[in-house]
Design a protein that fits this description.
Blueprint lengths: L13 E12 L3 H8 L5 H6 L3 E12 L14 H8 L7 E6 L2 E2 L5 H10 L16 H11 L4 H14 L3
Antiparallel strand pairs: 1-2, 1-3, 3-4
Length: 164
């Protein structure tokens, strides 16, 4: 749970949360987790020839909060973020966005959430080489269906904001 330095609970609403989230790679991973009741050790995974990329993760991100997932290379950061956005499916656990069960969201609902409500920056992101700076900055707005004049104006504002 997010708390201020004073120890008081943050009153802002929770936007994204996961409880006991797992992503395990390998055959019959979901059945394996279910058989263990979520009480799984690294040795258990190794004996079953499974890879536990995200293990029993519980977290909350509140409205307006900037949340950073940080860790060593290969520790599961990108896999966690992909599970949170359902770019890949979690093996087990609960996942909510704006109080709704994200695991029950349709593909159309997920596309809308990713386009309009949830942002991610991956470690290895790429600019589109055939577009100039303005067009690269404006590209996500084009995906959202925003008209050319408005998206170029907004892109110019962002470019100016970061002094490019």
């Amino acid at each position: 749970m997010t708390a201020k330095a004073t120890g008081a609970v943050d009153p802002r609403p929770v936007k994204l949360s996961c409880r006991n989230l797992w992503k395990v790679f390998g055959q019959h991973a979901a059945e394996f987790l279910a058989s263990k009741g979520g009480n799984v050790t690294s040795a258990d995974l190794e004996r079953a020839h499974l890879i536990g990329a995200v293990r029993d993760t519980t977290m909350e991100v509140r409205e307006g909060e900037i949340f950073i997932v940080m860790g060593l290379s290969g520790s599961g950061k990108s896999t966690l973020v992909r599970c949170l956005s359902r770019l890949i499916e979690p093996t087990a656990g609960e996942l909510e966005f704006d109080g709704k069960d994200l695991l029950k969201a349709t593909e159309a609902e997920l596309i809308d959430i990713r386009r309009h409500k949830m942002g991610m920056v991956f470690q290895h992101f790429a600019l589109l080489p055939h577009l100039n700076v303005l067009e690269n900055v404006a590209f996500p707005l084009a995906i959202q269906g925003i008209g050319k004049q408005e998206r170029e104006q907004r892109a110019r504002q962002m470019i100016e904001l970061v002094s490019l």
